[in-house]
Amino acid sequence: MNDSSNARRSDTTRTAILRAARERFATDGYERATIRAIAKDARIDPSMVMRYYGNKEGLFAAAVSHDLRLPDLSSVARDEVGHALVSHFLTLWEENDELTAMMRVGVTNERGAELIQGIFRAQVLPVTRQACPDPEQAPARAALTAAQLLGLALTRYVLRLPPAVALSHEEVVAWVGPTVQRYLTAPSP
Predict the structure, then answer these.
(1) What is the per-residue pLDDT for 2?
(2) Rounded Cα gap, residues 107 and 99, in angstroms
(3) 188, CA 20 to 30 Å: which among 52, 59, 82, 121?
(4) Distance separating alpha carbons of residues 180 and 81, to the nearest angstrom
(5) pLDDT score for 108
(6) How confident is the model at residue 107 (pLDDT cuts 50, 70, 90)?
(7) Phi-psi region of 132 (alpha: psi -120 to 50; beta: other; left: phi over 0)
């Protein structure tokens, strides 16, 4: 086989491993997910998972590293940033099981929590700084925004509380958007 064929096969194997890992972490959580189960789901030998990712922690980090693709709030009307963020997060959760896996693992595992904290620092905090009136308050405002959005995700996508699941995208944005808006732009209490 030539190098390009090997590279394609390697990419296909990595993709299968990551897909299986995301599904397994989302279903079983970090502690119960095993390399063997993930390898079985990917239809490969467990040694291949170890070859590409080293261990379960390395696999988890690769499987849940996620770009939230947060919108540039400078192009959003100031009184609409809360609605824009809530709508954006809903769309992400509805399109991506990876975020469900991150949530499940983040609440039960220290390494998972650290990964979520890293995403918060690198992605949510800078977006909050764009919207808030006082940059010194950005960390507190970002934390409150994250609490609201993660609480929504927990009830709607992880715990699947029927009333939370039953709400349409538009209803969730209408209810939660003003709260996030207040966290981001209201005068400090």
Answers:
(1) 62
(2) 12
(3) 121
(4) 8
(5) 79
(6) confident
(7) beta
Q: Which domains does the chain have, with CATH numbers?
A: 3-64 (1.10.10.60), 73-185 (1.10.357)
**Structure tokens of 74?**
């400078």
Cα dihedral: 57, 65, 97, 168 (round 10): 140
Distance, in Å, from the CA atom of 128 to the CA atom of 106, rounded to the nearest integer, reads 22
119: Cα within 13 Å, side-chain hemisphere: 19
User: In whole angstroms, how far apart are CA 132 and each of 67, 72, 84, 135?
Assistant: 22, 13, 14, 7
Selection from 102, 105, 100 nearest residue 160 by Cα: 100
- For residue 35 the two structure tokens come to 């390399």
Label residue 110 exposed, middle or buried (CB < 10 Å: 0-12, 13-18, 19+): exposed
d(CA 19, CA 138): 35
Looking at residue 148, its pLDDT comes to: 96
pLDDT in tens, 29-51: 788 899 999 999 999 999 999 99
Beta-carbon contacts of residue 132 (< 8 Å; ≥ 6 apart): 138, 141, 184, 185
